[in-house]
Design goal:
alpha/beta, binds zinc ion, binds adenine, TIM Barrel, 359 residues
Length: 359
């Protein structure tokens, strides 16, 4: 497989922890998968202003700088209020295409090789945007990402948990017309007070249709929501899941079953799930044997794409080269890739790890 970013990046100082340049090279050189990414959360302020102008949509900020300055959040809900306002500038299939293509280019420049991307159909259909517009725009970009950037991808249709189970069911009915565009269904938005069990029936139907299932759980919500996501929704992966560490029996189960947890460190600090990166539990989770991956969630709003999240773990938590390789490895093992493609990515990763003296 081609590897544009690793050429000539042989580590100095044997790639040992503490050799700052070697660490920096390793993060860039490692092939990575991103498994927790909301495409609407990649809307950079500059593009928001451009699309607002293009579509004649009024937004309550005079400039991209003013918009960026507003990105200070108290908690998940205060972020979601801004995020849903941002969605209002997305109108045509070209808007969804441009948004998705911009993310793919940026991610590829960070050596992200595979992405499993969320979109929130109800953030758009409730504004009168046809589901076809959204799905066609994003899917066209994912196809171009495969052809032009060599990136593989999957699309995850996510239900907004603050809306009703009936609305989720109607969304699934509409979406099944595009069944082949999706790899999985997911669950996001305001967590506390909207437990996974509320969506039991729609997830059962989605799984009957052959879709995988994932869900946000244990971001702000309690460990019991993680248990519900596993036992009631039948999820293969838990998004965030950081609050699992409050429940020893749950941790044991997650380790035993190697349930992937798609952790988003910078997001968790911006939304005040943790007071600081230095206090984040992601490395404790990794060392406990959990199958942790590192992701960006809503990078335009939180100020960091995947690479910045890996680097944050080095800077704030002292993540070693071995930790970084393990996190990148987990990102492929936790993906919905077919075995052949997964093995190829992992072989590339092993080659980089060997070059840096980590294997
Ligand atoms: N939608 C976009 N980002 C989200 C997050 N971090 N949690 C829940 N819903 C979201
Ligand atoms: Zn998320």
């Amino acid at each position: 497989m081609d590897d544009a970013t690793t050429a000539g990046s042989r580590p100095g100082a044997g790639g040992q922890p503490g050799a700052r340049g070697a660490h920096d090279d390793l993060v860039a050189a490692l092939p990575k998968a991103e498994l927790h990414l909301h495409i609407e959360g990649t809307l950079e302020p500059e593009m928001a202003v451009e699309l607002a102008t293009r579509n004649g949509v009024a937004i309550p900020y005079p400039s991209a700088e003013a918009l960026r300055r507003a990105y200070v959040f108290e908690d998940l809900q205060s972020f979601l209020d801004v995020y849903y306002t941002g969605c209002s500038v997305l109108v045509t299939d070209d808007d969804f295409y441009d948004l998705t293509m911009a993310y793919l280019r940026r991610a590829r420049s960070q050596n992200v090789r595979h992405v499993e991307m969320y979109f929130d159909p109800q953030s758009h259909t409730t504004r009168g945007i046809p589901l076809a517009t959204v799905v066609e725009g994003i899917s066209r970009a994912l196809a171009d990402g495969r052809d032009e950037l060599g990136m593989s991808s999957g699309l995850i249709l996510s239900f907004l948990r603050h809306l009703s189970a009936e609305e989720a069911a109607a969304t699934l009915d509409d979406a099944l017309a595009y069944r082949d565009a999706f790899v999985a269904v997911g669950l996001d938005s305001s967590e506390v007070g909207n437990p996974p069990e509320k969506f039991r029936d729609v997830f059962a139907r989605a799984r009957q249709a052959g879709l995988q299932a994932v869900a946000h759980a244990g971001e702000e919500g309690p460990p019991s929501y993680i248990v519900q996501a596993l036992d009631i929704l039948g999820v293969r992966r838990v998004d965030h899941g950081v609050r699992c560490m409050e429940d020893g029996a749950l941790v044991e189960r997650l380790v035993a079953e190697q349930v992937p947890l798609t952790v988003c460190p910078i997001s968790n600090v911006k939304l005040r799930v943790f007071p600081s990166l230095a206090e984040h539990n992601v490395l404790a989770m990794l060392r406990r044997g959990l199958c942790v991956t590192v992701n960006s969630d809503d990078p335009a709003y939180f100020g960091g794409y995947v690479e910045e999240n890996y680097r944050a773990l080095q800077a704030a938590l002292g993540a070693t080269d071995g930790d970084l390789v393990q996190l990148a490895r987990n990102s492929f093992t936790a993906s919905f890739l077919e075995e052949g493609a997964r093995s190829e990515y992992l072989a590339d990763l092993d080659e980089v790890a060997r070059r840096f003296g980590v294997l």
